[in-house]
Specification:
Length: 214
């Protein structure tokens, strides 16, 4: 087994960071949050000769989950996550896409929901799952202790945090999720997030203006 690597493919008009996590040696991996532009994702997978074992979702917003069913069909793999509290969001992707005039996105039904504290893996890379509601009720993040790496979806961004004005959003709950689930992972943990550049948890703890006083 080799090193855990990550590649980001921005998808949908929301420039969502669809993330391919893979093992450099076995070339096995997972796709996190295929929100759309599935042809582009498939092209990247084929160019890099990566065999996808599963689709992992952080939450049910259209830009994260809208391409999951199409990718599932194309690859013949299961959709894992998020937490079941995002079922209403996953079932309203087509309505939301209509409001934003985005075509081709589909409602999503995962093969398996995730619970706080369980683990998911591919090759020999194991990720602990944390339920982090606030941006979306069923939002989960994925943490790999060996590489001190987390995929935090739309919970935390470099210099910002997830918006909480969408259905199911709750600002106080989001801050609690960050305080109790994300920051305790440790200052040296690097993260990829759903939009924009990633970062390091310690930098956010010290400098992110939205985390002052939590
Ligand atoms: Zn979101
Ligand atoms: Zn997003």
């Amino acid at each position: 087994m080799g090193t855990l690597q990550a590649g980001v493919v921005p998808v949908t008009p929301f420039q969502q960071n669809c993330t391919i996590l893979f093992d450099a040696e076995t070339r096995e991996g997972v796709v996190v949050d295929p929100g759309g532009d599935v042809e582009v994702i498939l092209q990247v997978l084929s160019e890099n000769k990566i065999a996808i074992k599963a689709i992992w979702l952080t939450h049910g917003h259209l830009d994260h989950a809208g391409g999951a069913m199409q990718l599932r069909e194309a690859l013949g793999v299961e959709i894992v996550g998020p937490h079941r509290d995002d079922l209403p969001l996953l079932q309203s992707i087509e309505i939301q896409a209509g409001k934003y005039n985005i075509t081709g996105l589909q409602n999503c039904m995962p093969d398996r929901w995730l619970e706080d504290g369980e683990s998911v893996s591919f090759s020999d890379h194991s990720f602990k799952v944390f339920h982090c509601p606030g941006h979306a009720p069923g939002h989960v993040i994925y943490y790999n202790d060996a590489m001190k790496f987390a995929h935090v979806g739309d919970v935390l961004f470099a210099g910002s945090i997830g918006r909480t004005d969408l259905p199911g959003g709750n600002h106080a709950q989001l801050l609690q999720s960050i305080k109790n689930k994300v920051l305790p992972l440790g200052d040296d943990v690097g993260f990829i997030c759903g939009h924009g550049p990633g970062g390091r948890i310690g930098d956010e703890r010290r400098e992110n203006p939205f985390l002052r006083g939590i």
